Known about the structure:
This protein has helices spanning about 15-35, 55-65, 85-95, 110-120, 155-170, 225-240, 305-310, 315-325, 350-360, 375-385, 420-425, and strands spanning about 5-10, 40-45, 75-80, 100-105, 125-130, 135, 140, 180-185, 195-200, 245-250, 255-260, 270-275, 280-285, 290-295, 300-305, 335, 365, 375, 395, 430-435. By secondary structure, the chain is an alpha/beta fold. The protein has two domains: about 5-135 and about 155-170, 3-Layer(aba) Sandwich (Rossmann fold), CATH 3.40.50; about 180-435, CNF1/YfiH-like putative cysteine hydrolases, CATH 3.60.140. The strands form five sheets. The chain has a six-stranded mixed sheet. A five-stranded parallel sheet has the order 3-2-1-4-5, sandwiched between helices. Strand 17 and strand 18 form a beta hairpin. Helix 1 crosses helix 2 and helix 4 crosses helix 5. The protein is elongated. The termini are far apart. The model is unreliable at about 135-150 (pLDDT under 50). Its main location: cytoplasm. Its EC number is 2.4.2.1, 2.4.2.28, 3.5.4.4. InterPro entries: Cu_polyphenol_OxRdtase, Cu_polyphenol_OxRdtase_sf, Cytotoxic_necrot_fac-like_cat. Keywords: Acetylation, Cytoplasm, Endoplasmic reticulum, Hydrolase, Immunity, Inflammatory response, Innate immunity, Metal-binding, Nucleus, Peroxisome, Phosphoprotein, Transferase, Zinc.
Amino acid sequence: MVEAVLIDLFSLPANLQNNIQGLLHNSLAAIEKCSSIHAPFVYVMCCQRQGSESKDEQEFLLPALRGFQSLKRRLEVVCAQTTAAALYTVKQRLDEKDLSIVKVILPTLRKDLMKVYIDHLFTAVYQFEFDDLQVVSDSGSLQISEHQHEGQTLPSQDVALIQSEIQMYLEGLPSLKGELTILRASLIPDDIFLHGFTTRTGGISYIPTLSSCNLFSSSKRRDPKVVVKENLRRLANAAGFNPEAFHRVKVDHANAVCIMGKTEPDNYDGIVTNQKGVTLAAPGADCIPVLFADPVRRACGAAHSGWKGTLLGVSMATVNAMVSEYGCNMKDILVVLGPSVGPCCYKLPHESAKEFHRIDPKCVRLFDSASPYIDIRRATRILLERGGILPENIQDDSVTDQNQNITFCTACHPDKFYSHFRDGTNFGTQIGFISIKD
Length: 438
């Protein structure tokens, strides 16, 4: 069942004002007639003419809006100077109400254009269906475009213009939840490596569980790639790395490692390089983002270590890749565990907990319960030490000086970090990142 209706009047010429009012009235009448049982939310999207204010456009449409009592409380006019700005505002309204199924009523010749905007600003969480808005002037059928025909792929230059419009709009949005903050480990020498762990502040993601510096887009979540890309651009500016030379692991919750410069696996949870200026990153939203640095051989790595990856030894697999590929000495490699869910909050079913108990009984609390508490950080440290990493070369939540602790519990700090465990399926993601300075 349609949850929202978007009426796109954005491209209609100003000289057809009477027609616009009539079109809108007819469209609303049709919506009201078909939706007597379940009245959808209705958004009317129109162009704010240069020099005018949004309220001017809304007042112009008022005659057509009057009289629709069943829609009145669910009806909103959205005016903006660009399609990107108007559509992004509509998206915010949909997200506030957790709406996903949308009917778009628009001129036939604007359909292909609108689909490009929607592809960039929405994810697969949303479902769109399209209806034609029949536009007729005194002289007959109104031709909105002389070149574009429905079903025809938009020329690449038109797509590029839309992408540019969206990017410029997003770049102009204010940062949310305060300044962008980066946590840095004292263990990694900053004269050789650029590194850090992100927090949730300083980005433009506005959905509560994703707000604000979400750095991962998924077809199952509501933050589109363009928003994540803008968050990454802001992070890169603040941290000082090149976002065009940024490589994030392709999470599989396993132990495969990608060697930069060699054939990239389809999925991998570890990545290593000895190339300067290349930034490696691992996500985390309870899982551990782990960073690796060898200041002697000047090599680095990043790994994503959830409970499955921890048991499969993804951290040691990343270390071993640095040793075999770059001749690193095990005793020179520094390892930092980033913000992740702590043993105070994280539970697993008893069967899975047994595996951690085998690594060390201290990795499990309330072992005899149905869902014991698990310390995946302690398990990671133990496996690294057994593999040959020096205990003093590992920085995690065991540090005695709490001013040096950056391995916070993500579930315990909703103001600072995202947490899948705490926030559910539409959760945000922070990252750990590292590169070798030029």
